[in-house]
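Tutorial handout. Part one gives the primary structure; part two gives the three-dimensional structure as tokens.
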Amino acid sequence: MLGAVLESANISYHILERAQEPRPLGSAIAISANILPVFEQLGIYEELKSISLPHISLDMYNTNLDNFCSLDGECHRAVTGYEHQIVARPRLYDLLHRKVPEYKISRGKKVIRTKERDDGVTVHCSDGTEYECSILVGADGAYSVVRQNMYKKLDEEGNLPPSDKEDFTIAYINMVGISSPPNPEKYPQLSDTDRTHFRIVIGDSNESCLFVTAPDNQICWGIQIQLSADEATQHQFKNSEWGPESIDTMMKDFEEFPCAFGGTMKEIFDATPKHLISKVFLEEKLFQTWYHGRSVLLGDGAVTAMKDAVVLANCLYNMNDTSEKSIETAFANYYRQRYSDAEYMAKSSAIITNVMYGHRWTDRLLRKVISSYLPNWVKTKGGVVRYSNRPQINWLPLVENPDQGYVLPQEGRELVEKGALAI
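Part two.
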């Protein structure tokens, strides 16, 4: 996303990608009104809709496939004027990837260390290559080498907040994939091209399974195992990254688990390429420190990370030069605009995750209250807050608010209109 946005401004950039080639890992991603206007600005909103389906409701079932809870998704459109679009993660990646020229991506570049100078940054890769840049953006996830190098320097200087030294909180083990059943007629929900069927089966102990229909007869699925505090501690030293590792045992354990659309998980597993099934530990942590010197970080998460990319690009665009002072000002402005929203989204996302997959008595109670007793006006008010932060690309024509819900003012637009220079 950051590459696509910078490309639209003709700002020089280069992406160092650790993987030798992109692999279509993951499951489904919900693209909300918080970022959909940017897809309109980039001219890919209609294409996004062609490869996704709108989210109307979330239905929850027990292992007997009795529907015991439904959460209405129509309020999204009522509050924002947009429908949530549910898209398979690989297709979203391909859509954004096509906005970035291939020659601006170097693959197989595992960053091992970075070195900052007064006038730039040197990036060292494991294959012996080096890259020079004015600004380094770490968009490499929770275990970011850029962040680790930054934090090491700050810690040596005595300037790293204690909270940034604390471990992640591991909440769930997650295994995901995308199935293409050879007999789609067995799953009549796949024939519905007007909406996605979004279903979760809550297991009897600490497990649950997610099932989402996608265009072209695909079922995006995910298995979640909620961890206790002791179990989380046991897993905290395991590196968390997408990859088809340690999945055989987990697949075996869930072969007989019911699929929300009929049959069992074994049939879903058999219709999913094994090398595209991945397992990851879902970890929670909001870091306090996002930048230092000429290095800056993007968030790790779909919509939140894309909003980070848009706001950071806006702040870079409004720089007059690449001096340390200009960079410090741009990074501070980026942090000011994004931190409070990232904090709110992290907290609300944790609640939503527990409502969807949690097995603790507090999770079950919250699920019951939201589905059965929470008034619609409360849900609507919550949606207004959640979807009010909708940053757009400042140098492109702004997408008008569809007169539904409140949208925060666009920051930095006036500088573009006054003729601020892009770096």
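Part three, for discussion. DSSP finds 14 helices and 17 strands in the chain. The chain has a mean pLDDT of 89.
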